[in-house]
Design goal:
Length: 214
């Protein structure tokens, strides 16, 4: 996948609302593979909706979204399974970790499906993010910042053309933000993938950013 295209797209809930000037809503915009994007938005302006539309979780929008020119609206389960396994890696804002499993088990659960990383590579990512001592801790006992880092590791355990991150560092300080950014950028560079991150204030510290207003 080389491009994610939005054409006059808008969440249906905003249909009768007064929309401020946006780089994405009600315009034509294309996310390109290999580039880094930061979507800045106030709460309630649709940043999580945008991520959910791109990942196929929600379809309550007007306009058109296309992957490499193909409208995604008719896609069924088989198409979305392929896209989610091979083309788009997604970190939802709510993380969706299993609290009754350990941090490592949460990551391995996905990696067993993708076979993308070795266990040593996964443990190295835990060490890089400063949570190597938490690999065997139940997720329900971790802080929200530690959970975010576990979820980021899980997100990177797959092949992809785009990495979509919804508020990935909202509970991290600047030092940990920078470490996460370097790890994400390294994986994106290795795969030639694009990065689409959202923020309501604590921006992922990526390089060579295209900044967008929602």
């Amino acid at each position: 996948m080389q491009q994610i295209e939005l054409h006059n797209t808008l969440p249906k809930v905003f249909a009768d609302a007064q929309i401020a000037a946006s780089d994405i809503w009600l315009t034509d915009f294309t996310f390109e593979k290999g580039k880094h994007y930061m979507v800045k938005a106030e709460s309630g302006t649709g940043k999580s909706s945008l991520c959910s539309y791109i990942y196929g979780y929600r379809t309550d929008y007007s306009g058109r979204i296309a992957f490499d020119g193909t409208d995604i609206a008719p896609f069924g389960a088989n198409e979305w399974c392929e896209i989610r396994c091979r083309h788009i890696a997604y970190l939802p804002q709510e993380l969706r970790l299993f609290p009754e499993l350990t941090a490592l088990e949460n990551v391995l659960l996905k990696n067993q499906l993708t076979q993308h990383k070795s266990e040593n590579e996964i443990r190295d990512m835990f060490a890089t993010l400063g949570i190597s001592d938490k690999v065997n801790s139940l997720v329900q006992h971790l802080s929200i910042g530690q959970q975010q880092r576990v979820a980021i590791i899980r997100t990177l355990c797959q092949p992809c053309d785009f990495i979509v991150l919804d508020e990935p560092v909202s509970h991290l300080d600047e030092a940990n933000n920078a470490i996460v950014a370097r790890l994400v950028e390294s994986e994106a560079k290795r795969q030639g993938a694009g990065i689409i991150a959202t923020s309501v204030g604590n921006n992922l510290l990526l390089n060579n950013l295209v900044e967008l207003k929602l």
